[in-house]
């Protein structure tokens, strides 16, 4: 079957439907899942994938594409290719680090123009709250310096003003909650203690309870605020929380001196903390897992000096989220149904796209990832599709190979090759009552 062609049906011995894995044929019509049958006589346009797993495409709700303005860091063309190669069928682009940031309607339309004709997967967009733009229906804000001057952090007064504007709008506010020898990773880690996240999240939970605006904690790195989050939820706070692949896959004890490709903010913490994050995932205390794909150019990573204090804080992993998660999760008793829940369904719900993305069922977009959860592969530079091939995962062996990705019934990726032209479309995140993300 040629890349870009319309797929009428996908047959597999392992189709993930709800919590069950069973033989089935997914019938596709007009880009939507028409029905799912246990048997079928379909022959024309059928993609038979044997015993490869067929499941909903991944929805990555936290990606920094950096276009316009910083296309030397990344861009829609390369980011969405990396997404397709990793079984990600929908990304949601963050309001920074593009120039201009997505903090006004005009800037949003500029980003849409830049993205047009460049997306290999479907793409939605978060907006941003900065001082003075609370009347904009923005979504993400920082409680400390964001790392770029054009996206300043907010004060408590700004937060209260934003919450008042968002009450009843259905918007979600995403909040970033963190604040010797610079070549030693421990020096950097000590400069970003857990208490920074704890106190920032305390502020978020109080605001969430006060205004009853849906709030979302992005890139949770520390397990210590989990009790605060649970207490707020039990008191009625409409609060959700994500963590990322790097906090679940990497630990501070194993980061070599000068290895600035491991730097991110908040930082990668110790192995005991990591196990607590995994336990919270299993218990449902953490709702979803995302990439927080945040690339930059090699010079900004300070690989030559190995100075953690000066290096850009961000990790590129958009293409490898599925195998990264599965390689660690399966050892801890997670099932394939947990992969869909944490990487597809819950992220789609956060974005208000869960009526079309994140599940296999009649009426949903025919977004499918076809992969082998048993097969191993090594991450090599030549197989990386994001623009700058800097990642702490180079040379590691993972389990879970993506064979093909189907976007709204079209074959957009297959075994290292892509459809000749981008087929992704722009998605608008619908407003929901009393929703805010922080």
Automatic annotation (TrEMBL):
MF terms (GO), sorted A to Z: allantoinase activity; cobalt ion binding; zinc ion binding
Keyword Mitochondrion: no
Cofactor field: Zn(2+)
An example Gene Ontology CC term for this record: cytoplasm
Gene Ontology biological process terms, A to Z: allantoin catabolic process; purine nucleobase catabolic process
This protein's record includes keyword Metal-binding: yes
Keywords: Hydrolase, Metal-binding, Zinc
PROSITE patterns tied to this protein: DIHYDROOROTASE_1
Pathway listed: Nitrogen metabolism; (S)-allantoin degradation; allantoate from (S)-allantoin: step 1/1
Catalysed reaction equations from the record: (S)-allantoin + H2O = allantoate + H(+)
Record EC number: 3.5.2.5
Listed PANTHER family: ALLANTOINASE
Subunit structure: Homotetramer.
UniProt family annotation: Belongs to the metallo-dependent hydrolases superfamily. Allantoinase family.
Protein name listed in UniProt: allantoinase
Originating species: Lates calcarifer (Barramundi)
